[in-house]
Design goal:
The chain is mostly beta strands. The chain has 2 helices and 43 strands. Among the domains are: 68 residues, no CATH class; 76 residues, no CATH class. It is 2% helix and 30% strand. The protein is rod-shaped, with a radius of gyration of 38 Å. About 1% of the residues have low confidence.
Length: 506
């Protein structure tokens, strides 16, 4: 390439430094410290005429030469320029120099610099990268709670009730989706899908540091439940590295004569039993007491004035933080010398869901740990107390009409009619008979009600009878999030003694 500036003879003066002084016309290929190159096709100034692209003519704008030195062509700060045997040469912060970064394991231009040791990690700008078998760091993964102070990992959640042991348990986590009608057994760890087939979800049994029942924790990367029932003596938990989503009913209520998983056997919260008095066709007693949990239960009704007093209500025993995690107590029964005639409702179960990112209860999803209603052949069984639900994740969403978390108490039975179990956001209604009835179950805002008295005037008591049982108390709902705030949205509701806190971190 030869650079020429053609001018009409005799019209202008002599050209000096690329500018014809007579005509004041600038040569577009000329460059120096005061005249940078402006043509995108020729962005580099060959000041010394060192490149073939300028035909070795000094002060000429040229296209970017191959292997152009940084000092001439510049670079993007931080970009890899070349790999040497034990170092990565990167662009300096000024964009016109290079710096050498030592590489203990060698440099590989295909991965963009120094090789890393498999398993190493780094966390910058709220995202973590992990060294892969290739020697390259993975793509950044956003940290839900930001980077830890050591710059190598995300801040992790610290779960309540000893469940860090489950979060950190070794083994590969998988993604699971279970259809409506699935089941979990906290005693054996068995999981069945809606079609009855076994689903191999790993689990660990965790002892709570503050007492209470052991917790069967099922381990997943993420899990979606379209509806499932939970049984077994241990409390129930799911721990997930990513997300837990519920869009059906997760049912932890008593069933088939068994209490909810992880229900309480503490004497202080159980509704008091009563004993039938009299003989033959003239037997009588008060009603069984309702079980307590978030509040006290309600007492059973009397028979014959003070002839046969109703059973005392079970006392409150839960703490708002649900530490330890424990379900509801049973209501009081009406017993003969050998067998119960009116059975107290059983306690609702206990569930703890822990996710490193998000818990979602959506699209008519429900978590129900309500207490059982009283039952039996006679009236008088007290209602069981609602259980406990603990949700822990940086973000918890309960959203959508029909969605919610319900931990209400059960109602008492009446005249052989079973009391309703805690089912929704409304109180479990009392069973009615003879214009009287058993006590209604408690909710997050309503206390359980006392059972009705039978034959309050002793002189009029010419028949056998049993006072009606008291209603069971509501249970607990605790939500721990990154911000320490939570609200059900989109028409979703909750019913329990509810509280919110800030999730623990480590």
């Amino acid at each position: 390439m030869r650079r020429w500036l053609v001018l009409a003879v005799g019209m202008c003066g002599v050209s000096v430094a690329g500018v014809n002084e007579g005509c004041a016309v600038h040569d577009p290929l000329f460059c120096d410290a005061s005249h940078p190159c402006t043509d995108p096709a020729r962005p580099v100034c060959d000041l010394n005429g060192q490149f073939d692209e300028s035909d070795h003519i000094k002060n000429t704008c040229i296209s970017t030469p191959a292997n152009c030195p940084v000092e001439v062509c510049g670079c993007m700060p931080g970009e890899l320029i070349t790999c040497e045997q034990t170092a990565a040469v990167r662009c300096g912060s000024d964009g016109m120099s290079s710096v050498s970064e030592p590489c203990a394991l060698g440099c590989d231009s295909s991965i963009g610099g120094c090789k890393c040791t498999q398993g190493d990690s780094k966390c910058e700008g709220g995202a973590v990268e992990v060294c892969e078998p290739s020697g390259a760091f993975s793509a950044p993964s956003e940290c839900a709670l930001g980077c830890a102070a050591d710059g190598k990992r995300c801040v992790d959640i610290s779960a309540s009730n000893g469940l860090n042991a489950a979060l950190d348990a070794p083994g590969t986590r998988s993604d699971f989706t279970l259809g409506a009608g699935a089941s979990f057994d906290t005693a054996s760890g068995t999981v069945l899908d809606s079609n009855g087939s076994a689903v191999l979800i790993p689990s660990v049994l965790v002892s709570q540091p503050a007492g209470g029942p052991s917790i069967r924790a099922f381990l997943a990367r993420s899990i979606t439940l379209h509806g499932a029932s939970v049984t077994g003596v241990n409390a129930f938990a799911i721990v997930a590295d990513d997300t837990i989503e519920i869009d059906g009913t997760l049912d932890l209520r008593p069933s088939a004569g068994s209490p909810g998983p992880g229900s309480s056997t503490a004497s202080q919260c159980k509704g008091a039993d009563v004993l039938l008095a009299g003989s033959g066709q003239s037997r009588y007693s008060g009603g069984g007491g309702g079980a307590g949990h978030a509040t006290s239960g309600a007492g059973g009704g009397n028979w014959g004035g003070t002839t046969a007093l109703g059973g005392a209500a079970g006392g409150a025993y839960g703490v708002v933080e649900t530490t330890p995690l424990v379900g509801g107590c049973a209501g009081g029964s009406v017993n003969s010398e050998t067998t119960p005639k009116a059975i107290g409702g059983l306690g609702g179960g206990a569930a703890q869901l822990v996710a490193r990112r998000t818990i979602r209860v959506v699209r008519s999803g429900v978590i129900n740990a309500g207490g059982g209603g009283g039952g039996g052949d006679y009236s008088g069984g007290g209602g069981g107390a609602g259980g406990a639900v603990l949700l822990e994740a940086p973000t918890v969403v309960v959203d959508g009409s029909g969605s919610g978390v319900f931990v209400n108490g059960g109602a008492a039975s009446c005249g052989g009619t079973p009391g309703a179990s805690g089912l929704s956001s409304t109180a479990a209604a009392q069973a009615t008979c003879d214009a009287t009835g058993g006590g209604a179950g408690g909710t997050g805002v309503l206390a359980p009600t006392r059972g009705s008295d039978i034959c309050p005037t002793p002189s009029a008591c010419s028949f056998q009878g049993i006072g009606h049982g008291g209603g069971g108390a509501a249970g607990l709902l605790r939500v721990n999030t990154a911000t320490g705030s939570f609200a059900a949205t989109g028409g979703a509701t909750t019913s329990a003694k509810s509280s919110v806190g800030t999730i623990g971190t480590r």
